[in-house]
Amino acid sequence: MLTKRVIACLDVDAGRVVKGTQFLDLRDAGDPAELAAAHAAAGADEIVLLDITATHEKRTTLLETVRRTAKEIFIPFTVGGGVRSLQDAAAIFDAGADKISINSAALADPSLIACIAERFGSQAVIVAIDAKRSDTGIEAWTSGGRKPSGKDALQWAREAETRGAGEILLTSMDRDGTGKGFDCELTHLISEAVRIPVIASGGAGGAEHFVQVFREGAADAALAASIFHFGLTSISDLKGRLFAAGIPVRFPC
Amino acid sequence: MIAIVDYKAGNLTSVKKAFDHLGADAVVTSNPSEVTQADKIVLPGVGHFAATNALNESGLREAILDSIERQVPFLGICVGMQWMLASSEEAPSVHGLALWPGECSRFPASVKSPHVGWNSLEIRSSASRLLRGISPGSYVYFTHSYRVPLLAVTTAECQYGGGFSAVVEKDNLFGVQFHPEKSGAIGLKILENFCGLEC
Question: What is the ipTM of this complex?
């Protein structure tokens, strides 16, 4: 049986893992290579490394960090942040990533999705959507959550799928870093609207939130960062809790 | 020497990294004569079945067939496994090796596609050499939209929108639909088994 995936995310700034609240107020959480290996050993199903300041500072992704992190992990490894072109993506794959995650660059030029998918396969292309609720609906935001894109999140998810995305990484900006739980309603809405897997992100505070997003949110995978880094929940504990709740997970690993 | 065949379709870094980790002498190559000299051949594959056309057009197909004829162990991964069949619905005009009967087909509309994530192996043959030391129900990582049907040579199957072949093997021929290089300790053990084969 296909299991629900638990994904550990490393938000990286200048080669260090950091974590903030609602995309601001960053705190140091350690070395990316060490944390990735520790999460993989503890049963993480995938590792995502997001270079969170790459887009707005117009830096290229830290390839050396990617190479070092990829070296000793043998589970799927995704890198995002600052991927603006096919060449950026190719360099990241060459450094050892299996998938790239694109957000701002895809919003600015949606043809980039197909461009990378045709060369590396759809399975290697995740379109990340930073979604924020407003009075008028749910909008996709760009530049690391700094600017509204003007695109409706659901329409954008469908367009990304049509253009060749292999998965959607859906982050609730309203919940990110709050520990109040995933936005299950949002996740369900997007998950039902597309035929590709949806990774829920933003708001994980405990095992019950993962149970909720898999059950009520119809998420195929769920991603969290800070709760793992600061030891609030170890991944092995979390997967044990999910297993006990009847959620299909890879456990024991 | 293990030849990891590069036909310019996708990313082979992870496959190479896994063999390096195991201490195996593996080279990534698109040179047919280097493939011919290899003790073992690995054909990775990500992306579209049509990408295998590059094998047909570059002399790599002949080099691989020649080695297979000489009983050189061959491992197809993902699309590399699918290419061992005659064809795929994904690109009907592209010819696979037709080592076994059947055609690769798309997942039914009842399930999301691609099939992405960790799924369990139902081992059908205790004589499997590739799965030596692997427990039934072990999880491995899949990512694909097309699948190989259940065949006489299927040694492990997987359930997603019905059963399909996760592992096929016969004599010196081996194929895995999942990515052993991305399947943690289980995947590394499977690659280690391949490295240790004497055919």
Answer: 0.93
